[in-house]
Write a structure and sequence with these properties.
The chain has one domain (28-370): TIM Barrel. 44% of the residues lie in helices and 12% in strands. The chain has 15 helices and eleven strands. With 377 residues, it is of the alpha/beta class.
Length: 377
């Protein structure tokens, strides 16, 4: 048995120590973990939480990930694709309302029409969001799945703002058997874990701030698996992490496997956030919207456990019902302006401030950039 108070003083952890921390259930012990994660976040990342305005561009998907509500073979969902002008309008609104960064997310496609469409959107977003407040334009996070290195580079060039450019590509689980179970549907784009990791390598080579993450509570997943996920975060040298609980979707292909009980799943998710903060240090960690399904203040509590990024949904409300990756997704009717202000009040109630008009790049990535600039030519 470990001495928890002494363990929480460490910055380098063994696998056994990580597994112990992930498995904490006693409220007093969980509180100690939460307090140290919060303190460590303040010391390493400051006191601010950064917004990434989420724009869900399209729910058209060529993949059949078995857990996902917008998988290709779900014929119940009404498919949509935002126009270029609709996407640009939301990005410009974000830039004018204090969001220094947006996130473009969509179902997975690799056709040239889609690739060029995103490229055009990025160019125009950059052009229309350059201002005295944002001299390099609004920052961009892309979450558009597995692509070739050439495509990643095209999008990076089109963004016009490599200093505030991110990509989120979660590997979902480092356990190859679990990964195969999640993505075992047959199809042209059947997923392979090694390929997902290769994409993370390409993104780093193209200069993106590399984000990845996992699902927590996958049926059959163990604490050891989650520990190995954290080790994979270290291995890929992630700059940011976006992860959340495994939630069922009635229109997916894994409903029969069920879902962990909500209270236990919520605490496990919080533990995973906190331990990731303790192990990974000065990276960005996003508070997943999915946590709101498990607790009405899920994202705010996640801030107390070490998160410093939130992604308010800026998608037009008419599209939101069609972009439900899991059941009971919250915020389908939230107005972006009033929701953003209300969210700020809730963030302030947790002792944090919103970093309005600030890119909020991970300090780990910034430090790496400084070292590169100091290298002799």
């Amino acid at each position: 048995m470990f001495n928890l108070k002494e363990l929480l003083k460490k910055t380098d952890f063994t696998n056994e120590e990580i597994i112990f921390l992930l498995g904490l259930k006693d409220p007093e012990q969980c509180k100690l973990l939460q307090e140290e994660a919060y303190r460590r976040t303040t010391a390493l990342m400051g006191n601010k939480v950064y917004y990434r305005g989420l724009i869900e561009c399209s729910n058209i998907c060529t993949s059949n990930c078995r857990y996902c509500g917008i998988r290709k073979d779900n014929h119940q969902v009404r498919r949509y694709e935002m126009t270029k002008q609709e996407i640009i309008d939301q990005a410009v609104w974000a830039a004018r309302n204090g969001y220094a960064s947006i996130c473009l997310q969509a179902g997975e496609r690799r056709d040239e029409k889609f690739i060029s469409f995103i490229e055009e959107c990025l160019r125009e977003i950059h052009k229309q969001t350059v201002s005295d407040v944002l001299p390099d334009g609004v920052g961009v996070t892309l979450s558009l799945g597995e692509q070739t290195k050439e495509v990643y580079e095209r999008w990076a060039v089109a963004s016009g703002n490599r200093s505030n450019l991110r990509y989120l590509a979660r590997f979902e689980t480092s356990n190859a058997d679990l990964f195969s179970m999640l993505h075992s549907a047959k199809g042209k784009y059947e997923k392979i874990l090694d390929h997902r990791l290769e994409c993370l390598k390409y993104l780093k080579e193209c200069g993106y701030q590399v984000g990845t993450g996992v699902m927590i509570g996958i049926p059959g997943q163990t604490l050891k698996d989650l520990c190995m996920d954290i080790r994979m975060f270290q291995q890929v040298d992630a700059d940011m992490i976006g992860m959340g609980p495994y939630l069922m979707s009635e229109e997916a292909d894994l409903e029969s496997l069920g879902q962990m009980e909500n209270k236990a799943l919520f605490q496990l998710s919080l533990n995973m956030i906190a331990v990731t903060r303790l192990v990974m240090g000065n990276i960005n960690i996003a508070a997943a919207t999915a946590l709101q399904v498990l607790h009405p203040e899920g994202r705010e509590i996640a801030i107390e456990y070490g998160c410093n990024v939130i992604m308010p949904n800026l998608s037009p409300t008419k599209f939101r019902e069609g972009y439900q990756l899991y059941d009971h997704k919250p915020g389908l009717n939230d107005d972006p302006f009033h929701f953003g202000l209300h969210l700020e009040e809730r963030i302030q109630s947790r002792g944090r401030e919103v970093g309005w008009n600030e890119s909020g790049s991970s300090r780990k990535w910034l430090m790496k950039q400084e070292k590169q600039e100091q290298l002799p030519c």
